[in-house]
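Researcher: Please predict.
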Amino acid sequence: MYRILLVDDEILVRDAIRENIDWGAMDCQLVGDCENGRQAMEFVTEHPVDIVLTDICMPYMDGMELSKFLHEKYPDIFIVIFSGFGEFEYAQKAIQYGVSEYLLKPVTAMELREVIGRVKEKIDEKRGAREQMDSLLRTSEDYRDNALMIRSGAIEGLVSCTRDIQESLYQLERLGIHLDAQSYKVAILDLDAYSQLFQIEADQRQESQLMTFVLFNISDEIVSRENAGIAYQEGSSRVCVLFTGEKNKEFESRIQAVCKEIQEKAGEAIGMGVSVGIGGWVRSLTELHFSHEQAQKGIECRYLLGGNLLINMEDEKEQESGLSIQVFLEDLAEGMKTGEWNLVQSNLDQIVQLIQKARVGKTRACGYLQQIIRTIGLCLGSVTGDHKKELKQRESLQAKIPEQRTFQEAVTLVEEYAKKSFEELQMMNSSSGHRQAALAMDYIKTRYMQPDLNLNQICSYLNISTSYFSTIFKELTGETFIEVLGRLRIEKAMELLESTTLKNYEIAEKVGFADPHYFGICFKKMTGKTPTEYAREKRR
């Protein structure tokens, strides 16, 4: 029996609908009728209702407000809206409130019966899905109390080394499970929907345990059929497979095929992506944790490569230690300065591909992206002259990089920043004065270590007068040539004091000071400390 509530401020409409429909023949019951949304709201709080038939325009609380209330407080109630011709487009906006059907007034008995029939099908479908979910949940609850839980706990303790090996083996032998094999390998299967890849709702999190049990059943069935090893649950949110057999190409291919089949069947059954990380081979049970750790590294590649991942760490090469992006950063900066977007884009793409190929962890991947942001920001700051603003913008963006759920989302932020900065540089460089000042900044940065670097040299390089140069340079940077040169030399000296053990006079010479004593005076004026004090503080 389907319980229906009718809401309309016109009593004649309510009477007509109530009297012209054979509710019993439709397996329905008209449990009440109200003349406005406020009355309907009070009614549903005290009586069970399956379907609400409501007009839009009513006093006190209209149909839209009622739909919003029902959607938020009673999401299981299905809503059907009546609307006049002029209100129909407005009524369609109610889709955000879960409205199931719309009827254009005047409503005929035949139309209403057809709509109610469709809504009943939706209710049946929802009830069926809920019953199926409840059935799985009951099965899941039974599972916790039977041998499967003991099996999973014993193998998990064996793999993670959190239990005595003999104790775990004894428990498994009592279940008729013997793990004697030439080699072992661990695979981890993780549901993408409950990882950091996706933003999930609270009710979805509650489903994770149930969905993991479904994944376990699928894995257990396929692994058992193939006689390839044994599946077990790791905690309440992950499934693992302990493969047992002979280390050879044939069995390696079978493992890959088994994991692929589990991935596909799970996707069909629960509509979610599953990522699989397969660890390397080990010879003894005491080494299982090494294979598990490798499989975990494979799962972590999901940040770089996206979901529904299947990665066998036997096929991966250690590449992290040799990864360097400095050459690409230099070419990228050159493209920003010369206005060649293709050069910028190609180097961005190459850096991203290098990071993905190296399979670095999230922290390192984010660090490389932050280097790109710093390079772009310095290019921008050299033209705008507003170093504080550029630094604040850059730091804000760098802080957002680790917050992104996937590497691709972080890369998108970097690409957007690069494009925006490139366009800003192009606009500024269209002004000859800005371009000349930017060229001067580049000239200073590449020659600051020359003690005899002076204003006349730069003006000769740019082929402009010293007075004109001083004007445009001050407008762009907010500083004079001497101030910029001095600041840059001291900043470079600070870097050397922090990262080397060079003596003060050696650093003075490297950054363009011919007189070490004068270097000390300038350094203290800018930093408030002598070079020796600064070095002692930073080298602790």
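Model: The chain has four domains: 2-131, 146-315, 320-430, 434-538.
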